[in-house]
Amino acid sequence: MEERRKQGIIALLKGIETGEPESVAVVNEQQYIQHNPLTREGDVGLAELFARLAKTNPRVSIIRIFADGDFIFAHTEYDFSSEKICFEVFRFDGDQAVEHWDNLQLKQPANLSGHTMTDGETRVLDKHLTEANRQHVSDFIQTVMINRQFNQLSSFIAPAEYIEHNPQLEDNLSVLETHLARQSDKGDALTEYRQLHRTFAEGNFVLTQCEGQKLGYATAFYDLFRLDNGKIVEHWDTTETIPPRSDWVNQNGKF
C-alpha cells in the first residue's frame, strides 16, 4: 500500500511536467481538500490544469519521498517561472489522495558549508525507530524552537556529524546557536516558532509542520531532519510567508 501510494504521488507530480491526464487518477477530486491558500478548489479539473501547465515546459524533481500511515510526504524541486524548493504532504483515504499541504521557498545558492537545499542523504533506514525518532524531533521543536532553550541544542543534535542545508547556516552548532539567539534577541523575535501542527516520520527521516512569525509576518516552517543513533545529523527546510486571509482563494487554511 505504501509503495503504491508513493508511486501514485510521483506520477501525480511528474504529471505537472508531462501533462498526462492519467497522472491525476491518484486524487479523489470530489473529496480533495487543498491547503495551499492561493490554489482554488474545483473550478478547473486537475487533468485540465496539468495540460495547461505542461505547455509552459515546467520541470519537476522528486528528491525524497516517504510514507507515514495515511500520509505521503515529499521533498521536491520545481522550475516553473522560478525555481522553488517544496515540501508536499498528501493524506490518503484508501488508494486516493484526499487532502494536500505544501510549503515553497525560492531556491537559493549553496551555504557556506557547500550544501544545497536538496542534496544529501535520501535512503530510508531504521524503520523500527520511526516512533522514537518522531518523538525526539517533536521534543526538539518544542524545547529549542518554541521554548527557545538554545543551550539544549547538543541534547538533540550530534555536533560532529551535523550537516546543515539551510542557505544561511553551516555545519556548526555554535553558529546555529548564535543565529537562533540573535533571531530571538531581547524578546523581539525576528523568527519565532509558535506551534507544531504535525510531525510526519518514516525511519530515520522526520518532517515537522510549524506555524509562527518571521519579520512580523505569519509564516509556515517545514523542517526535515535525518537522525542516526537517536540524534539529529542532517537538516533541510523551507520557509513561506502565509498570505493574508483576504488573498486566500479557498478557506481551508494553511494548516
Automatic annotation (TrEMBL):
This is SnoaL-like domain-containing protein.
